[in-house]
Structures are given as C-alpha cells and as structure tokens.
C-alpha cells in the first residue's frame, strides 16, 4: 500500500520537483544553481515549459538543432529506419545507412578526408582523433607523445579531449592525470605572428604528434574568431614538421560559419576532422572522426596489435545514420542555404546598430554566429555575477541565451524567423541597458 502511495505522490509533483530527487545535471553546482526549467515540447525555434511559457531557442540547444525542434522530415526518416533496422553491432557487420553517410560526407567534406570512424558525441570524436595521432607514431616506432592546442580551447570532457581543452576550472581536478598538451596563443587580430612563432618553436622539437584546433571560432571561449589565413599558416607549419592537424568542427560544422564546414575557408586542409552536434539535427547522439588515407594506412598491417582498438556499443547506429542523412539533405536545400545567408545579414545589421553602444566593447559575426563583448570594470569569470544576471534576465523574457562571462552570443536554428531574431536582438539590447 505504501508503494502505491509513493507512486501517486510522485505523480502529483511537478517535473522539476521529480527531477530534483534523482538527476545530476551537466556543468551545475546543485547547491547554488536555480532549479532547471522543465520543457515539455518544441517546434521550430520555440520551446514551451510545463507551465506553457514560451521560449525562443536562440542557441539551438547547445548548437545541435539547426533545422528546428520536432522537424518532421528528420522524424519521418528515423521512423522509417526504425521499422527496418534499429541497430546492429558494427564490429564485423555493416549496413547501408552507415555506407550512405560516408558516401554523402565524402561529397561535401574536404577531398583529403577519406576514412570515417563513427562514435557517439563530440568528446569521443576528439578522443579518437588524439588516440589515432598518438598511436600512428607508436605504430611506426616513433616517440611523439605530446599534443599542441590553443589557449582557452574546449574540445570535450573525456580525458584526452579534456587535456586538450584550456579552460582550467573544467580540468583542474584532473591535473597530473592527463596527456601532455602545450598551448599556443590563438591567432586573433595582431596576435598572428606570436601564435606562428610559438608553433614553430614547438614543431622543431619532434615531440608533438598533433595540433588540435577549433577552426576560425572558439565556441566555449565566447565565440573568439580568427582568420583562415592565420590558420592556413599554422597548418602549413605542422605539415612541414610531420605534425598531424585535427579540426574540431563539432560546433562549426554543418553551416554555422556560412559554409558547410569552417575548413571550407582554408586552402590547406587538416588531416582529421571531428563532427557531431548538428550531424543528426539534434535528434540522436552521433559523431564522426574523419581521416586522410595516410592515417588509415598507418594502422593497416599484418600485425593485429597495430589496429585501432577503439569502439562504442552504438557505433554507426542505423537510426542515427538515417537522422544524419536527413539532416545533410536539409542542409543542402537551397531554402536552407538562403536562411543561413538571411540570418547572417540580420546579424550584420544588428552588429552595426549595437556596436556603437557605450557598454559594448567588441562585436563579431561569422555565418549564423553573432557575439558581443561587454565592457566591464575587471575580468568576468565564466559563471560570474554578470553572466548569471544576464542569463536570468533572458530566461525571464523567454529567450534562451547562455552568456560566457561578459560575452553574449547568438547561434540560432536556421529556420528562425526575422521576427524572432528581432525579439532576440531587442532583448539583448534591453538587457545591456538594464543590467550592465
């Protein structure tokens, strides 16, 4: 009888109260954080909570929903796949959806990308790339055990990905347990030569297996942007010194920068690319790490011990592959490409308007990404007071934005209307006036 009463009692509680009993949320100090918002449904660029309050998803739910919530085109593809083959192990087996994803990506990725390894998320995509770089040299009997990365990078939360990340409070507890990574300055305006010289000095030591970077935009650092020309120079240095290059396109991939991939702006292409987030349109967790033929050949041997012993239970899940194929098809539609350009033009117009605001320090735009940095008296911490005040203000106004310290950014679904974009812009402007 008591069990029945407990069940009934649980059902009487709202979703947030039930969540608080059991769930541990990401990047959350539960003792001090506000309770989460319970979302019950989404459509397009909008979400609704359990009290029917409407929110504009101005960051595409951590950059994964470029085609909007509850997209019926992707949902239909998933349903069709579920009625045919929902999953089969990928060790010793294959299936058409996985082959089709590889064939489709081969058409739109830089042409040096020849081999494709499936995993589950952005962190694992990076983990695989770093393991491949290290083991490639091990297989050849060469001792290159270090990695180069940018300052303030973010590449994920698994151990190698975490080691390559430069946001210290994410990794401080694990110092001493990580692979060795040396950081160089990001080649932002007027820092290009400093970055290049730092890389040259490291490259000459023959100790480094790979250089990993977020191409053109450092997302978690606050949408920090730098030029393709600077990145071309860095990649060239690595190629001259037999250091593999890894483009972490988990955030930038699939249209965010105005092109299919940020690497499409480059003249010198990386050896590896990491893809996830928008790969399946925000529906099913899936990731890919892509490689040149040279990297694959470094594991192709009569010696079984030189194989890449890495895998995931849901590697190349057919349902996820169906979602990926539908997402890529949507991305390639002329209407979607026009949406990306439309959002870019709207961002540029807002940039022109807001950059003269006395409380705005800098603004920047690339593709559908907009960011502004606010003037402050001192350095603002990642989850500091100003950030929290801004976040709470936006939530109160029904706009989902997650400022990074004193940086506010927008990265909306491509299907967002001009009307909703203007609401976001106006809310940001009113927040600056009210809080800063």
UniProtKB/TrEMBL annotation:
<dbReference type="InterPro" id="IPR015422">
    <property type="entry name" value="PyrdxlP-dep_Trfase_small"/>
</dbReference>
<dbReference type="GO" id="GO:0005737">
    <property type="term" value="C:cytoplasm"/>
</dbReference>
<feature type="binding site">
    <location>
        <position position="402"/>
    </location>
    <ligand>
        <name>substrate</name>
    </ligand>
</feature>
<dbReference type="Pfam" id="PF00202">
    <property type="entry name" value="Aminotran_3"/>
</dbReference>
<dbReference type="GO" id="GO:0004141">
    <property type="term" value="F:dethiobiotin synthase activity"/>
</dbReference>
<feature type="binding site">
    <location>
        <position position="248"/>
    </location>
    <ligand>
        <name>pyridoxal 5'-phosphate</name>
    </ligand>
</feature>
<dbReference type="InterPro" id="IPR005814">
    <property type="entry name" value="Aminotrans_3"/>
</dbReference>
<feature type="modified residue" description="N6-(pyridoxal phosphate)lysine">
    <location>
        <position position="277"/>
    </location>
</feature>
<feature type="binding site">
    <location>
        <begin position="122"/>
        <end position="123"/>
    </location>
    <ligand>
        <name>pyridoxal 5'-phosphate</name>
    </ligand>
</feature>
<keyword id="KW-0808">Transferase</keyword>
<dbReference type="InterPro" id="IPR015424">
    <property type="entry name" value="PyrdxlP-dep_Trfase"/>
</dbReference>
<keyword id="KW-0949">S-adenosyl-L-methionine</keyword>
<keyword id="KW-0032">Aminotransferase</keyword>
<keyword id="KW-0663">Pyridoxal phosphate</keyword>
<dbReference type="GO" id="GO:0051537">
    <property type="term" value="F:2 iron, 2 sulfur cluster binding"/>
</dbReference>
<feature type="binding site">
    <location>
        <position position="311"/>
    </location>
    <ligand>
        <name>substrate</name>
    </ligand>
</feature>
<comment type="pathway">
    <text>Cofactor biosynthesis; biotin biosynthesis; 7,8-diaminononanoate from 8-amino-7-oxononanoate (SAM route): step 1/1.</text>
</comment>
<dbReference type="GO" id="GO:0009102">
    <property type="term" value="P:biotin biosynthetic process"/>
</dbReference>
<comment type="function">
    <text>Catalyzes the transfer of the alpha-amino group from S-adenosyl-L-methionine (SAM) to 7-keto-8-aminopelargonic acid (KAPA) to form 7,8-diaminopelargonic acid (DAPA). It is the only aminotransferase known to utilize SAM as an amino donor.</text>
</comment>
<keyword id="KW-0963">Cytoplasm</keyword>
<dbReference type="GO" id="GO:0004015">
    <property type="term" value="F:adenosylmethionine-8-amino-7-oxononanoate transaminase activity"/>
</dbReference>
<dbReference type="InterPro" id="IPR015421">
    <property type="entry name" value="PyrdxlP-dep_Trfase_major"/>
</dbReference>
<feature type="site" description="Participates in the substrate recognition with KAPA and in a stacking interaction with the adenine ring of SAM">
    <location>
        <position position="27"/>
    </location>
</feature>
<keyword id="KW-0093">Biotin biosynthesis</keyword>
<feature type="binding site">
    <location>
        <position position="277"/>
    </location>
    <ligand>
        <name>substrate</name>
    </ligand>
</feature>
<dbReference type="GO" id="GO:0030170">
    <property type="term" value="F:pyridoxal phosphate binding"/>
</dbReference>
<feature type="binding site">
    <location>
        <position position="62"/>
    </location>
    <ligand>
        <name>substrate</name>
    </ligand>
</feature>
<feature type="binding site">
    <location>
        <begin position="312"/>
        <end position="313"/>
    </location>
    <ligand>
        <name>pyridoxal 5'-phosphate</name>
    </ligand>
</feature>
<protein>
    <recommendedName>
        <fullName>Adenosylmethionine-8-amino-7-oxononanoate aminotransferase</fullName>
        <ecNumber>2.6.1.62</ecNumber>
    </recommendedName>
</protein>
<comment type="subunit">
    <text>Homodimer.</text>
</comment>
<comment type="similarity">
    <text>Belongs to the class-III pyridoxal-phosphate-dependent aminotransferase family. BioA subfamily.</text>
</comment>
<dbReference type="InterPro" id="IPR005815">
    <property type="entry name" value="BioA"/>
</dbReference>
